[in-house]
Amino acid sequence: MDRVNLGERLQQWHSSMHDPVYAVGSFYFADQVYPKKEIVEHCIRNLKEDIRDKKKMLKGIKVRRYNSFYGKWIDDQKKFAGYTNAQLRTDIKDLEDIVKEVEWFLREDYK
Questions:
Q1: pLDDT per residue over 38-63, tens digit each?
Q2: Which residue has the higher pLDDT, 90 or 70?
Q3: Residues 79-88: pLDDT tens digits?
Q4: Which DSSP string corresponds to 9-33?
Q5: ∠ CA 100-54-102 to the nearest 5 degrees?
Q6: For residue 40, what is the enclosing H or E element?
Q7: How far apart are CA 60 and CA 78, in angstroms?
Q8: CA proximity to 78, closest of 102, 92, 58, 48
Q9: Least confident of 47-51, 63-67, 87-91, 99-103
Q10: Residue 73 host element (H or E)
Q11: Which of 33, 7, 36 is nearest to 21 (CA)?
Q12: How buried is 111 (Cβ within 10 angstroms: 0-12 exposed, 13-18 middle, 19+ buried)?
């Protein structure tokens, strides 16, 4: 996957401009290297946290998240978002692919 396509996929996962996933995605979408390695590492950590949360939901474990749009905590993210198990499995696979690609760019960009 090239940097521009990866940037678009990152932006589809995280839409907040204050989020490192969105920040890295914006630079990748412009076919640029993000200027700070630490932010790319933070991006990867956030994506891996999303994977962990989705795997928990798949097992039936409630995941609690703060929703800044509503200004409150959501006690069951799966129920709130209306995720199906099939959707969670698809999301997990997609996120794992994205993490693999971002890790590749991390190694290549900051040699």
A1: 999 999 999 999 999 999 999 999 99
A2: 90
A3: 999 999 999 9
A4: HHHHH---TTSHHHHHHHHHHTT--
A5: 15
A6: helix 37-58
A7: 9
A8: 58
A9: 63-67
A10: strand 72-74
A11: 7
A12: exposed
If DSSP codes are grouped into helix, strand and coil, which group holds residue 76? coil
What's the rounded Cα separation, in Å, for the pair 68 and 25? Answer: 21
Identify which of 24, 17, 28 has the alpha carbon closest to the alpha carbon of residue 44. 24
Angle (nearest 5°) at CA 94 between 88 and 96: 100
Residue 73 sits at φ, ψ, to 5 deg, of -80, 140
HSE-CB for 102 with a 13 A CA cutoff: 34
Residues in the chain: 111
Judge whether 21 and 28 are in contact, CB under 8 Å: no
17-41 burial by CB neighbour count: b if 16+ within 10 A, else e? eebbbbbbbebbbeeeebeeeeebb
- Both structure tokens of 105: 């760019």
Residue-level pLDDT at 66: 87
